[in-house]
Amino acid sequence: MTAAPATVPAEHREDVERLWNYHNMGHEIRPVDVGIGLGSHDLGVAKIATELYFEKMYPLLVFTGANAPTTIGAFPRGEAIHYREYAIENGVPSDAILVETQARNTGQNIELTRTVLEEQGMRAHSVILMSRPYQQRRAYATCKKVWPEVDVICASLPLSLDDYVASIGNPKKVIDMLVGDTQRIGKYADSGFAIPQDLPVTVQRSFSRLVRAGYDNRLL
What is the DSSP string of 43-101? Predict the structure, then answer.
């Protein structure tokens, strides 16, 4: 008997969709100097990075990320290394990929990637920053703080909320992450880690309702 696909609880769907849509920057994808894949538990980052390489959106790809408690089981050799292996297995030339294997947060992802590029004598004026869907806004705000002069476009594997939840297989994990990233938009700006982002009242209310409903595992 086939198990039913993982889905967002109906009583929380409107609030979850509101956060999901808020974090999607809706950027138009166009050619840039470098593609940057941010390490995480989600192999979808490597997938979209590979797809955009073959669509000729960039000539060079950097994967960045060490490990975290949530990723070491899936990617024991490190997030960036596993992403690179996926890209090469799917046809991206190895000499078109650089890896940064020390970063443990988004700020370090961007700072250390910039250092890697500079060590290669490369100065990027534009990048596509690839992440989990719900990480786009935070990644954008962090990049504009850490690397303000670069033109940054955000991208993720183009999945609907339902398809993404089904791909992860754990609705609570996805909602916890959405809630956590929403909190970080304000907290990280207040701490100087990211530029401020508008946080609509409707998003704030959805965030509060989901916290009260128990989706709080990723709160600071």
Answer: THHHHHHHHHHHTTS-SEEEEE----TTTTTT-TT-HHHHHHHHHHHTT--GGGEEEE-
